[in-house]
Amino acid sequence: MAVNTPNIIDVTEDDFAESVLAASGSKPVLVDFWATWCRPCTMMAPVLDELAGAESDKLTVAKVDVETNQELAAEYQITAIPAMLLFSEGKPVKRITGAKSKSALRTELGDVL
Fold this sequence. Notes:
Layout: E1 8-10, H1 16-22, E2 29-34, H2 39-54, E3 60-65, H3 70-75, E4 83-88, E5 91-97, H4 102-108
Parallel strand pairs: 1-3, 2-3
Antiparallel strand pairs: 2-4, 4-5
């Protein structure tokens, strides 16, 4: 299921290296690992969309569906969702687990924003 917003990119195992790892060399990338059946993930969607739009000059937001990208989720040890990883310079530098309010997420990402 593709992400239906201009502010968030939908990433798969095929384009993760380019869309996240390489892209995070110039601007941090927040990757949201989610699934369609995950209610807390659904609750996070508008928060992430708003963040992506408001902070597009400082941060790229990407989504990875763990159902269709299981190897990627395993590689980054995603065992519970929603889970977010912040990538910078091609490496994960911060892990955020669980649904967060807009203010809590902004606090977590304070160094970037």
